[in-house]
Amino acid sequence: MVEKIEEDIFGLIRKSSFKQCFEKVNILKKNYPRLQYPNVLELYIKYKQSPLKFDYEADLGKLYGSNGSIVTVEHETLNLLHRFFSELENFEEALHVYEKANAKYPSFELSYSWFEKALEDSNYKHMAKASLQMSKFETAAGSLESRDFYFWNAISTIALFEFRTHNLTEQEVKILPLLTYKNLCNCKPFRSTQEVIVFSSVCEKLFPNDRSKSDDILKEITPHLTDSVDLYLKNFMLKHIGSNNPDLLFSNCEKMLNKINDYDLLKSLVTSGKQLGKSKDELINLIDSLLTDSRNSRLIRLEIDLVFDLTISEESLRHYLSKFHNKQCCSADLLHYKNSIDKDMLAGLISSFDDSDVIHASNIFKMKLNELDSVEYYNRHKNSLLEKVETDYSANSIFILDIVKSLTQKDEEPLIFDVVLAVSILENYQNKDSHNYDTNVWLIALYMYLGLVPLAYSHYQDLKVRNVQTDSMDFLLYSRYSSLFPQKQHDFIMKTLPEHDELYKSSLERLPQLINVSFERKAYSKILGMLDFRQRLEKSDTRWLKLSEKAQLARLCNDKRSLLLENLHVNWRTVTNSAFKQWSDNRDWSIFGPDIDRNRLPAVLGYMNLNRDWIELNILKEFMIESIPNNTESPKLDANLKKVIANRDLNEILSSSFTTMENWSFRTFYDLYSNNGTNLNTLLEELDFDKLPSGTWKLSSDYLTCLATLKTLDNFKRITDKKTKQLIKSNIQNLRDSCDERYRSYQKLLTQVCNNLKSHDGKGLLEKLEFLPLEADSLVKHVLVVQKAIRNL
Amino acid sequence: MTTVQPFEATDLFKLNNVNLDTLTENFPLEFYFEYLILWPELFFKSVEYTANSNSNHDISGYMMAKTEGKGQEWHSHITAVTVCPEFRRISLASMLCNTLEAITDSEPHNVNFIDLFVKCNNQLAIMLYEKLGYSVYRRVVGYYNSNEDGYPETLKKINDGKDAFDMRKAMARDKGQNIRKDGRKHKCYPHEVKF
Q1: CB under 8 Å, gap of 24 or more: what pairs does B121-128 form?
Q2: Are residues B74 and B164 in the same domain?
Q3: What is the ipTM of this complex?
Q4: One domain, residues B184 and B147
Q5: Are A133 and A101 contacting, i.e. CB atoms less than 8 angstroms apart?
Q6: CB of B8 within 8 Å of any CB in chain A?
Q7: Which family does it belong to (chain A) (predicted)?
Q8: Helix axes A358-366, A374-381, angle to 10 degrees
Q9: In a shared domain, residues B89 and B182
Q10: Which chain A residues are Cβ-neighbours of B17 within 8 angstroms?
């Protein structure tokens, strides 16, 4: 009954039907006079009705806050209070209601709810407190015993020290590690490897550089090293034995190498072996007896050379190369040791091996030992593309990408001719090596550079990006998407985007529950990683850039935004609450190769060059736009703006992170929000449509950013000045009138470039590679698709 | 130079060089978490110290496995073992399989055997597993059937592209009970391989 009425009331709140809300609450009060729930609900409705008039301290704080007079243990009431305080951004109070309830009426169920809520909030301090409370009850839930909660407490405490040290008082820094350590010592003997891992983690992370704790770790893990193989224990062993005990390190490494092949173990075996006075030959023979002939066993000879002679010998290098010169790992392996290898010796040795293999050639090329250029290498090895298994990747892509990057990877804007030439090369190559993603990602990026999103989308589909992978890959396609291809009927937005959003909508929401299960199932070793993962997904750049784009798309398409903004606020609040780390850039920039530096992207990748300032300021721009019609002050928004700007010059931030048009758009809304639009006319007069870019992604981006801004301004009833209104409307009209001509010109430009490919510079290169030039039709057709999507807005 | 390390949830952000491979499955987040939660020791990765220090691609491969079955059928099962293109053909998959064997052939797992499923037409993989000591125990008819194919109605109709070999490697404690010399002749339905 309560649940039904509650559901009704929340529906009514959403519709702002407050009168009916109060009527329903009165029924609840009458039916359940002894419950606190109707009282809290009534307060909540009052708050929702007029948040600015709500007197927090008088209405809520003095009753249910930290020093409030009422303590409740009702599950629904605690839940509602948690929600209420969270919405007010009093996150500490939100959990304190549980703490208070537990202090007055302690029970296992209540402390368990407290733990669950703290986990939901990523509040590790409360998780630690709640789990300690749970350990006080002999009868726990299911198969759990009271001692288990000391391990929950230990993990929560480590998380607190790892991720939220700023949340700790000096006293807590001193006491909590000691308390956690003591509690775990009382749980000895440990019953599983997972328990040993928690204990070892407490010693390692809460008592850094404490030798006695390293000894504690070794004492616990040593018995397990004999009869089991655990990778965490291996790491603890390697880290904590220390250089003063080479005997133990050597024997443990030897023991483990009997079971697993691991380079860390090999390295420690070598260093401890040298300390013990063993010779190079003794170590080589021992390793050969422990391991089968493998990459590690050959590479460790380079390491042995370094440890004993500080230089790598020809013999060891030859031994490695004889087996791996034509394996793709070779260049990666040897580049790691490049400072210790004589380049001439390496060149001489590698050239003594059969050079007919494309992988051998690609290794030479990657190690910059090449005598030929990438075109010559490609031509020498292109026939191998005909012989390979379809799903294999050809090392020929190394040469092709070198050609592509030399054409397009520049600090300044590349020539459209060079980009189209590079696309021609990649399209031809992709036909021969269809599953090669190294080349495909560049093809996608170059199509995006040209503003041909539908073509980029089609190639992106080939990558089959899905599930958690979307968070690290979608920036290729969905950076600035609302101003590049806002076609809502296209699968780009209608199908793929919502499918990929499920990661944040459903999976991210389920994470607290899954982490909770990890505690219950005692998968202790994985929990810190899961907590970190959750925070990184919550604060993911990709997630937030998509959210800001969604809000801009809604403005551009005149869609309703209330629900969208409500969600944006809820998500923003979550991020504000979890004061863990800063934003998390999970975007996989390495996918473009080792030479791409995220902080110095070449101009051709400019469309995806969105930094934290860009993401945060665009979110705040949407909040400003929300506030402008009501002309209401928002202290929270002001505080957020202040925090992002952080004593820097706003204009400088905008110039370095935004395009010129994005910069103008932000300044326009900022002026309206913070300056009552004093400079609005000047800003509108600043617009010079003749200066809009004539092609590439910038054509669509500038056009649509401008249009979205003007349309939003046009919808503001607050702007009443006739001249201003007229200026907005005429700008919209002029911009729209110019749309077709702009895209027609771009089509002509691309057609011209494609024709030039057949007759000028590009022809020579394409002919050398035996590739066909790109036909203009395909490009022009897709410019038209983009144009149609845009001109209807 | 490969070290074997426990797989952490945050590694899921760094798997593109492995998982963009056309033959490698990208599972839902919950599936990866299921393995992290239920079999934390049996989800691990190979890490390369050779890669560029700025690179996000130091993971060269990973193993997802589980333990299941009762009594004589207590075993570990390889769910996924995969290696990125740059580190292929250097026996890295074998190294991951050997590591799993070392882990589950000892305390606290002490399995009787390890098994895996492989498409009957994946000759390359079958040869790799045979080299590692696995042999065919039975043929699972229609194991890789799509929804359109439906559930197999008979064991008589075989298809190398749709059927799987259940391959097993017995540990010493199994005393050969889960090994068949004529495994390819033994056929079963997909529901029979659930433990």
Answers
A1: B121/B160, B121/B161, B126/B165, B126/B167, B128/B93, B128/B94
A2: no
A3: 0.95
A4: yes
A5: no
A6: yes
A7: Belongs to the MDM20/NAA25 family.
A8: 170
A9: no
A10: 590-591
**Residues B123 and B87 reside in one and the same domain:** no
pTM: 0.95
At which of B111, B146, B179 does a domain end?
A: B111
| Ordered mean pLDDT values, 10 residues apiece, chain A (793 residues) | 78 90 91 92 93 86 90 94 92 95 95 97 96 87 88 98 86 97 98 97 96 96 93 97 92 96 98 97 97 96 97 96 96 93 95 93 94 95 93 95 95 94 97 96 98 98 96 98 96 97 95 97 98 95 96 94 90 74 88 92 96 95 93 86 93 96 97 94 93 95 97 94 94 95 97 90 88 94 96 88
Residue of B nearest to A586 (CA): B13
Cα A33–Cα A36–Cα A42 angle in degrees, nearest 5: 95
In terms of DSSP bridges, do strands B59-68 and B75-83 run parallel, antiparallel, or are they unpaired?
antiparallel
Nearest to B16 among A294, A473, A597 (CB): A473
Contact A262 B108 (CB under 8 A): no
> Which among B4, B30, B86 has the least Cβ separation from residue A260?
B4
Please tell me the distance from the alpha carbon of residue A373 to that of residue B167, in angstroms, as a whole number: 47
| Residues B121, B179 within the same domain | yes
CB within 8 Å: B8 and A294: no
**Pair B104, B139 in one domain:** no
Is B145 touching A (CB cutoff 8 A)? no
The C-alpha of A264 sits at a distance from chain B's nearest C-alpha, in angstroms, of 6
Same domain for B106 and B23, yes or no, is yes
Q: Are residues B80 and B124 in the same domain?
A: no
Contacts of B40 in chain A (CB under 8 A): 194, 523-526
B36–A526 CB contact, under 8 Å = yes
Q: For residue A228, which residues of chain B lie inside 8 Å, CB to CB?
A: 103, 106-108
Q: What is the distance, to the nearest Å, from the Cα of residue A355 to the centroid of all Cα atoms in its chain? A: 41
- Smallest CA–CA distance from A500 into chain B, residue: B28
Of B77, B111, B145, the residue that ends a domain is B111
Of the candidates A724, A442, A400, the residue with the CA atom closest to the CA atom of residue A602: A442
Domain count for chain B:
2
| A232·B6 Cβ contact <8 A | yes
* CA of A276 vs chain B CAs: smallest distance (Å): 24
> What does the alpha-carbon distance between residue B18 and residue B83 come to, in Å, rounded to a whole number?
6
For residue B144, give its domain range. 117-195
